[in-house]
Amino acid sequence: MKYSYAIFDMDGLMFDTENLFVTSFETEVSHATGYRFEREQLKNLIGINASRTQELFPQLFPGCPVSCSEAYAISHVWMQNYFDTHGVPVKPGLRELLDFLKANGCACALATSSNRSVADYYLADAHLADYFSVLVCGDEVSRSKPDPQTFLLAMQKLGAQSPAQCAVFEDSRNGLLAGANGGFPVFLVPDLIEPTPEMQALCYATCKTLSDAIALLQ
Questions:
Q1: Structure pTM?
Q2: Residues whose CB is less than 8 angstroms from the CB of residue 200 and which lie 6 or more positions away in sequence, other chains included
Q3: What is the CA radius of gyration of the chain?
Q4: In contact, 92 and 190? CB cutoff 8 Å
Q5: Which fold has domain 17-86?
Q6: What is the C-alpha to C-alpha distance for residues 188 and 205, in angstroms, rounded to an integer?
Q7: Which of 2, 137, 179, 180 has the greatest CB tally within 10 Å of its CB?
Q8: What's the pLDDT tens digit per position in 126-144?
């Protein structure tokens, strides 16, 4: 194993929830508010925490008749109904990668921009909580990704001495920048955002699925 520790983003990387989030705004929130939410604008909210979302929302959606909190409440109901019916959707290769890391004694942390309550719910629903000894969530840091604070705190809690000891797994531009800004090797597994040449240059490797990273970790 090249690394003693692994740090995972959550939405869009471990769970196919970013796509559900965008779909909920394009359909349910747009219908309820009469305001048309565009997919490309919604992508700007990927990988940031709630406080940063509150700041950006009025800039991204001028003239929206409801507040950020009201729009997210509508989205939350739609997504919860989906989870109640289908469960939280797990991304391909996640369980294989987590099993590989566990078998090789690699301690794992979750470092997400989502709030702790959301992370706890997703992990419990997917029966994945036991894989993670450390959780750092968006409501527990003062600076959102692309600031590296979330990853640096996860590294500290894992007991790692250097970012070079930690493989970071991300799907978003903001997450990739957070990892790169902190000096971490980042394995990029793209979700909704197609990696640009700039993003490719910042990451250690790009993988189609999480299980594709296994060969690169040995």
A1: 0.94
A2: 188, 206
A3: 17
A4: no
A5: DNA polymerase; domain 1 (1.10.150)
A6: 6
A7: 179
A8: 999 999 999 999 999 999 9
Using CA atoms, how far residue 173 sits from 10, 59, 63, 75, in Å, is 14, 19, 27, 23
| Adjacent-strand bridge partners of 111 | 136
Cα 21 to its chain centre, rounded Å, is 12
Return the CATH number of 5-16+89-217, one of 3.40.50.1000, 3.10.20.30, 3.40.50.170, 2.60.200.40.
3.40.50.1000
What average pLDDT does the segment 54-67 reach?
97
For residue 92, name the pLDDT band (cuts at 50, 70, 90).
very high
- How far apart CA 80 and CA 99 sit, in angstroms, is 28
pLDDT at residue 209, rounded to an integer = 97
